[in-house]
Amino acid sequence: QNELEQVRAAAARDDAQRLAAERLAEAAAENVSNQRKRLEEEVAKARADAARSAELLAIEKAAHRDKLTTVLEEHQQKVEGAQRQLVQERETLQGQHSEL
After folding, report:
1. What distance lies between CA 18 and its chain's CA centroid?
2. d(Cα 37, Cα 22) in Å, to the nearest integer?
3. What is the pTM of this model?
4. What is the DSSP letter of 44?
5. Residue 99: predicted pLDDT
C-alpha cells in the first residue's frame, strides 16, 4: 500500500513536472512568436518609411532639377540679351565713329 502511494505520488509529480514543462514551452513559443511578429512589423514599417523617404527625395530632386533648368534658361536669356545690347552699342559707336 505504501509503495503504491509512493508510485502514485511519483507519477503525479512526474505529470505535474511534464505539464509545467509543456506550459513553459508553450509560453516560450508564444513569446517567440510575438517577438517575431513585432520585429516583422517593425521591419515592414522601416521599409515603408524608407520607400516614402526615397519617393520624397525623388520628388525633391526633380524639383531641384526643374529649378536648375529654369535658372539656367533665365541666365542664358540674360547673357544673350546682354550680348545683343553690346552688339547694338558697338554698331552705334561704329556708326558714330564713321560719321566723324
Report:
1. 48
2. 22
3. 0.58
4. H
5. 79
